[in-house]
Amino acid sequence: MKALNKLANDYVNFCKECCMYASRDISRPEPLQFDAEHYRKLYTCFSLFSVLYLPEPGFEDVPVGDELMEWLNTHFIEPSTQEGDDLSSQERPWEDPAFWPYLTRTSLRGLSKASAFFLDVLQNHPSSYLQGLAQQLSPLLTDHPRLNSFNAERDFAVASRRWKGKVKTLRIELDRVPEIEREDGFENWWDRFSDIVGILEGRDDVIKKVCFELGADWKEVCAAWGIFVDTRLRRQDLP
After folding, report:
1. Contact assessment for residue 226 and residue 63, using Cβ atoms and an 8 Å cutoff
2. Residue 147's pLDDT band (boundaries 50, 70, 90)?
3. The model's pTM
């Protein structure tokens, strides 16, 4: 098995190097046999194959959600850095139609630093309700228990239960917001915020809806499923 792991890693690294080389705008003595996109696809597929079928020794039977999300964030980068830069340059980014989709996606993908930045920006939002809720949500995203931060799966399970309790408290606070206070003239911020809380609650219907609205596909659904819906999802559970 160690030999297979090494062979798989060698293939993954070789595909990555070929992709980087083919992407360079340089003169070459002869045309490339394949373009950079061809090698990018190989790199992506071999990486997923390695995650699913050739885990590191000792990790064969551990939950796979973190590894799937890392693969997704490495090979299918969303949202883009440009989107974040555009929003961060605005005085009131919540007025931009791209704001809530951006925040929803960073929350879905576990990009806690980006999420925390824009939740902090919401402290300037005219709604005091949203200000308070954003302040509560930020540490939930940054402190979300992830398996790779624990030495034992049992410790991870205990931390996850405590974290879920805090998410439940946030849902109660969110539901207390009066109907008349749930819009700001640009967006029904309550609905958008509720979607993010629904993701953290592990509600499969919300995750599917959000992924559809973001134009995501099975890759994002599967990765999010292993992080939020079924944190014990293992390789052998996947179809």
Report:
1. yes
2. confident
3. 0.92
